[in-house]
Design a protein that fits this description.
Strand content: 5-15%
Mean pLDDT: 90
Distance between the termini: 17 Å
Order of helices and strands: EHHEH
Structural class: mainly alpha
Strand order of the largest sheet: 1-2
């Protein structure tokens, strides 16, 4: 199974900006030491255009590498919570 996270672009940008504010000039705990949090216009453009520019390539890769593999698409934080709750209940 492939779990495809397709969060709204405004949510993604808001989260990037939040991380920037919270970890300005230093590394986030999950990042390697010496990699300070930073953003630039190129990265923000990448996020904004991701759905248009990257989705066709992702769809093609899914079709060619796993035509029989189920794809679960999660489009909101609520979708993620629901899937995690279902998995937790199944264990």
């Amino acid at each position: 199974m492939v779990v495809w996270l397709r969060m709204p672009r405004l949510l993604c940008i808001a989260r990037v900006l939040k991380r920037r504010i919270l970890h300005s000039g230093r590394s986030r705990p999950e990042m390697a030491p010496g990699c300070p949090e930073k953003i630039d216009w190129e990265f923000l453009r990448y996020i904004w255009n991701f759905e248009r520019t990257e989705t066709p390539e992702i769809r093609a890769a899914l079709a060619s590498h796993g035509p029989g593999v189920p794809v679960v698409t999660l489009c909101s934080p609520a979708d993620v919570r629901d899937l995690l709750a279902r998995l937790d209940g199944a264990l």
